[in-house]
Amino acid sequence: MKEPQQIVPIETVSQRISVIKGYRVMLSDDLAELYQVEPRALIQAVKRNRNRFPDDFMFQLTVNEAISLKSQIVISNTGRGGRRHPPYAFTEHGVAMLSSVLKSPRAVEMSVFIVRAFIKLREILASNKELAYKVEEIEREQKTQNRHISAIYRILDKLIAEPPEKPKEKIGFKVD
Fold it and tell me: How many domains does one find in the chain?
């Protein structure tokens, strides 16, 4: 099977994946930019098909989460033509569902690409867990070996500090 050509660098997509409420998500504005649609058009399509987006596919950030997010990324101020409502967050499944409600070839192509970015991120995290487990195992082995080496050094220190006793000469006559 031929590998599809990358639309945008996978790093660009993976940098836009955040963890909010314990979910790895992408924000509606970032998705709208990648899908090349207006953010309001994306949200409108989602609202028209709300039954396709359960809470584990998509949720709207609270005002406090949006304020916290504002300090981390650039979101325009309200009252100046910018955002008036907190953004929506889409999980991997929500991103896949977006392609069915947007229905453009670009949306389908980008959904597949973004889902692959989520999968790649999951693989990286899994390999990091395996690596962490191997490092822990090596550390445990190293501690055991350090205890053995310490015991050897203590024995050697005793032998060096206490010179061996000279054998006592036997009392009596020596016959040559």
Answer: 1
